[in-house]
Write a structure and sequence with these properties.
There is one protein chain. By secondary structure, the chain is an alpha+beta fold. 46% of the residues lie in helices and 15% in strands. The protein contains 40 helices and 29 strands. Strands 12, 13, 14, 17, 18, 19, 20, 21, 22 and 23 form a ten-stranded mixed sheet that branches. Strand 20 and strand 21 form a beta hairpin. The longest helix has 42 residues. It is elongated, with a radius of gyration of 37 Å. The chain starts with 10 loop residues before the first helix and ends with a helix.
Length: 1031
């Protein structure tokens, strides 16, 4: 079978590494023979040179950066931008045909267009040039040195100098420099933190045992060490079997180098809009030109050429009117404003289009640990023996490493049923009256190598060491101590002192003389300690089945009794309930051996393989049920997703049983729901055919113990169904899937590699932040659609106005520079302010929109056309009113107005009136006023302007923008300098009354359209609910 293609390796290198792909399934001796290396001597210089030639160096290739000129060229590829470029060029050429004072003002139009294009291109280049640093971060993730045997000596080598066959020595605190097959363990245990690579939430114990199969999950390769992971405990020796791009880390880097092929939904929609506009503009311009060829020689133009230039200018005006020049800038600005609101909700956006894409997300693939859960192990339940026939069981308040509440009051420990002398629901008081609880506290505290500390910067308690041991430290603090004076003083301590106060009490009372380290064979650890009475006791904790099997006695509230068969059965049943029940607790048994028949010296000189002999004839004390509990607020967020038509899929490196228990708690699964066909392991997924994989994701809600590239394949399977996927992750292993997903959501506590590949960073690692971001994304899309509707309706109005005048022979209604002023200044500010619209009522009760749904559907197009047509007709009527009905105007006849171009010295009217700026000013003022009303109409797509949720003052920024835009319009009318540039003149009060009378009816028209839209949305939502009622 040919090795899988890897862009970081040559075909020859890939083939060479493929010969070592089964290293985990080969004995150390056979592997060393295959690599031709003596583990005591290591590789010789000659063998190293050969290996470098065959395998390459242990480094990741640096990807080529996109040239700046390519980034710049990309910014001018959109259809809207191309239309603007053409319009600017034509406007620049036509400016040379102007004469006298009008010539310098004619250059304003192309200059403004060019400035807009430069501004948009600058923003785009800055975005793209800083978008993809994930591979570079991955290179910096490389370790620095490795203790390597070369030529019979151990030398510290740069990690990039390692080659397959090198013998590497590793110990606690060292980062693994390459993928290594263990051949020797020199301590009782060797633990590795692999969470950033595999998603495994706890440290993984390693061994040298040969696996029976080549095809095993990454997490199950317990005899392998992977590049970039960290040794947390123990010492070992291994042989390098993969370097550079062939390592698991390298495969992730290779996946990261693949580009996303699909554009974001809004970009697709805007491109479609640009295509539609370009076609419409071309047709309309051609029609206008063709229809008016016969008018080129009209007397008003003086010559055929000047007539041709005049109507060519009208065609350019049509192009300028049709293209919303400010749209790209407004879209970018509004998305940027949306990112600020998201940042306030702990969602930091690194890619602007991601803001919009969140709104059409219909699948959220979420990691479990830290996102759905607190990522803080805590003892949720525990029990001791109340009698030989009953267990004293307790539930423990709190799900973090906090040892006391914020007000310094203790967490509650509540009896479950009859426990010792407590009734069901009673709170546990001071423990001095309960010998079995005192003994349990001793085991949890003394048999523990972790600690709890107060982080002043984060304002939180945190665990240093193993999370499970940290949870037991916290339980000790919650139980308290039997010394009344110490107990009374706890509430007065500051957070730093309170973190380990009770644990410090026990360590001061009992001196630890020996530690019997944990190993995977006996599945336990213990400490030998001497108490105040100089008696020695062995305190033991470990896997319940292993510890219970070595217990011959039990501590029944201070009395040592023989472990009967009935009691052992009762304990086994209860512990099985803890482990395999709905909670799926991680269980640790507690035991002691009082006055053991061996001394501290015996333990000190013993071989670790004999530690189980010391931990025999134990006395069972109790058991702790440990859990990384779900965040309290997550269940509500999952329910919100369900109502919004969004499926939550949990993808985790943890085991299936534990993950399923969490899923039931947060509502991904029902309490008693059969999860067959909805929950899969990575092994099950890998064994499926491609067709089965694509089919299984239709109903899947949980994938457990998945490998890094499985996540990427899962995203691809969701894409095959046309689903928009948001993927969370924090580790190196998540980066490829984050990049491929429509929205990559990296955790704030995650690696730089994950953050570099993601579109958004969750500062608080919280699932509820994702839901809040989705809601904000939907709101932003709604607002974006509103200002697009606002801008396009306005532009359609301008096109209609110009088209009417061109077809009917009316004078030019709006000059190009006036159109630009309207599109950029008076339209631009309200459009940006629409980005601050309040969230629509029930926005998370609607189903997600389809990714390929057109931003301009049939109904939306109808709204655009009806509103735009009214805007255009009213704009023309403003000019017609001034010419024919205004008492202080020329009061010309209609046939004279429509035949103005044929006006000459013999005409009964003064031809100069057709060049008066007043009618253009009337039309411009009507257009601006209508657009201000349309801005208020756009506060909500469906809710009435007169409702409590969509009246103007629900968006104060829009009110300010409308006032400012109108003030700007007044400025150009009443300041002579600007009036000259824009060819306008001041209006009288009578003229303003006519402006208002022509503008106000647009509010009535939009209210009717909103009512129809509300009915349409209700019908569509009801239909969606009916179709997905079983989801």
């Amino acid at each position: 079978m040919a090795p899988k293609a890897n862009a970081l390796l040559t075909p020859e290198q890939a083939e060479a590494f493929a010969e070592l792909a089964d290293a985990h399934a080969v004995t150390p001796q056979a592997l060393l023979k295959r690599l031709n290396v003596d583990p005591q001597h290591g590789l010789s210089d000659e063998r190293v040179a050969e290996a470098v030639a065959r395998y390459g160096r242990n480094e990741l290739k640096e990807g080529e950066k996109t040239p700046m000129w390519v980034l710049i060229a990309r910014q001018f590829q959109d259809t809207l931008v191309i239309i603007l470029i053409i319009a600017a060029l034509i406007s620049f050429v036509l400016a040379f045909f102007e004469e006298g004072q009008d010539q310098w003002t004619a250059f304003v139009e192309p200059l403004v267009i060019v400035l807009i294009l430069v501004a948009n291109a600058t923003v785009g280049v800055l975005q793209e040039s800083s978008a993809e640093d994930a591979v570079e971060e991955l290179k910096r993730f490389q370790t620095v040195t490795a203790a390597t045997r070369r030529n019979g000596r151990v030398v510290a080598l740069p990690a990039e100098d390692l080659v397959p066959g090198d013998i590497v020595e590793l110990e606690a605190g060292v980062s693994v420099p390459a993928d290594i097959r263990l051949i020797e363990i020199r301590s009782s245990t060797l633990d590795v933190a692999e969470a950033l690579l595999t998603g495994e939430s706890t440290n993984v114990g390693k061994n040298v045992n040969t696996l029976p199969s080549v095809n095993v999950q990454l997490q199950d390769k317990r005899n392998m060490l992977f590049a970039g992971t960290n040794i947390t405990r123990g010492k070992g020796v291994g042989v390098v079997v993969a370097t550079g791009g062939a390592t698991e880390k390298g495969k992730i880097c290779d996946a990261l180098s693949e580009e996303k092929e699909e554009d974001f939904p809004l970009k697709i929609q805007l491109n479609e809009l640009g295509d539609q506009l370009s076609k419409a503009v071309g047709v309309i311009c051609l029609v206008v030109w063709a229809v008016n060829i016969g008018h080129f020689s009209d007397p008003a133009f003086g010559s055929y050429l000047r007539g041709a230039v005049y109507y060519f200018k009208i065609s350019v005006s049509l192009a300028v009117a049709a293209v919303p020049e400010g749209l790209p800038a407004v879209v970018t600005t509004c998305l940027a404003l949306g990112t600020q609101r998201m940042a306030a909700k702990n969602a930091i956006v690194t890619s602007l289009p991601a803001v919009e894409t969140l709104g059409c997300t219909n699948v959220i693939c979420s990691d479990k640990t830290g996102t759905l859960t607190t990522n803080q192990m805590s003892v949720q339940r525990f029990f001791v023996l109340g009698s030989t026939t009953s267990l004293a069981e307790f539930s423990v308040e709190g799900s973090t490493y906090a040892t006391a509440k914020a007000d310094a009051s203790p967490f509650a420990i509540t009896a479950m049923g009859h426990a010792l002398d407590l009734g069901d629901g009673d709170l546990l008081g001071p423990i001095q009256n309960y010998p079995s609880l005192i003994e349990a506290a001793k085991v949890c505290s003394l048999c523990n190598e972790s600690s709890i500390s107060w982080n002043e910067e984060l304002g939180a308690f945190e665990c240093v060491g193993q999370p499970t041991e940290g949870s037991m430290r916290v339980l000790v603090e919650k139980l308290g101590v039997p010394d009344e004076s110490v107990q009374m003083n706890l509430a007065s301590l500051n957070n730093s002192d309170r973190a380990m106060a009770c644990n410090n009490y026990w360590s001061s009372m009992y001196k630890t003389t020996n530690i019997l380290e944990f190993n995977r064979d006996r599945k336990s650890m213990s400490v030998l300690a001497t108490g105040p009475d100089n008696r020695q006791t062995l305190y033991v904790k470990g896997a319940w089945d292993s510890v219970l099997a070595r217990c011959t006695q039990a501590n029944v509230n201070g009395k040592i009794v023989k472990m009967s068969a009935a009691l052992r059965k009762r304990l086994s049943e209860k512990i099985t309930e803890y482990c395999e029940g709905s909670e799926a607790y991680r269980c640790l048994a507690l035991a002691t051996l009082i006055e053991p028949p061996f001394t501290s010296e015996d333990v000190e000189h013993a071989d670790p393989s004999t530690f189980a002999e010391f931990e025999s004839n134990l006395t069972f004390v109790g058991l702790t049920g440990i859990l990384d509990p779900p965040r309290a607020e997550v269940r509500g967020a999952v329910e919100k997703c369900h109502l919004a038509g969004i499926r939550v899929v949990v993808i985790t490196g943890d085991n299936k049983k534990t993950a399923a228990a969490i899923c039931r708690k947060i509502g991904v699964f029902g309490e008693d729901e059969d999860i067959e066909g909805m929950a899969f392991t990575g092994t099950e997924f890998k064994a499926m055919s491609q067709e089965e994989k694509i089919a299984c994701v239709v109903h899947a809600r949980l994938f457990a113990r998945v490998e890094p590239l499985d996540k990427k394949e899962l995203v691809d399977c969701f894409h095959k169904h046309g689903l928009v996927v948001a993927m969370t992750g924090d580790g190196v292993n998540d980066a490829p899937a984050l990049k491929l997903a429509d929205i990559g959501l990296a955790m704030g506590s995650g690696t730089s590699v994950a953050k570099g590949a993601a579109d958004m960073i969750l500062a608080d690692d919280n699932f509820t932040t994702i839901v809040a971001a989705v809601e904000e994304g939907r709101n932003i899309y709604n607002n974006t659609k509103q200002f697009i509707r606002y801008l396009i309706s306005s532009n359609i109005g301008e096109v209609v106005a110009i088209f009417i005048t061109a077809i009917t022979g009316l004078p030019e209604v709006l000059l190009p520079v006036q159109l630009l002023f309207t599109n950029l200044v008076t339209d631009g500010l309200p459009a940006i302010a629409l980005g601050f619209n309040p969230s629509e009522d029930g926005i998370m009760l609607r189903p997600p929109r389809a990714k390929n749904a057109s931003i301009i559907n049939r109904f939306t197009f109808t709204r655009y056309m009806l509103t735009g047509t009214y805007v255009g007709v009213a704009t023309v009527l403003g000019m017609v009113w001034w010419f024919t009905m205004y008492e202080d105007g020329p009061m010309v006849e209609y046939h004279q107005l429509f035949g103005w171009a044929r006006c000459d010295a013999s005409s009964p009217v003064d031809c100069g009136i057709f060049h008066d700026p007043s009618p253009n000013t009337m039309s411009l003022s009507v257009l601006v006023t209508i657009e201000m009303f349309c801005a208020f109409n756009s506060i909500s797509e469906t809710n009435s302007l007169f409702s409590s949720s969509a009246h103007p003052f629900t968006n104060p920024k829009l009110v300010a923008a409308v006032l400012l835009s109108f003030a700007t319009h007044m400025l150009i009318l009443y300041v002579p300098f600007f009036a000259t540039i824009f060819s306008v003149t001041p209006l009288t009060w009578t003229e303003w009354q006519a402006v208002l009378a022509l503008s106000a009816p647009v509010i009535v028209l939009d209210e009717i359209l909103k009512f129809v839209d509300r009915m349409k949305i209700r019908s569509e939502t009801a239909q969606y609910r009916a179709e997905h009622k079983d989801d």
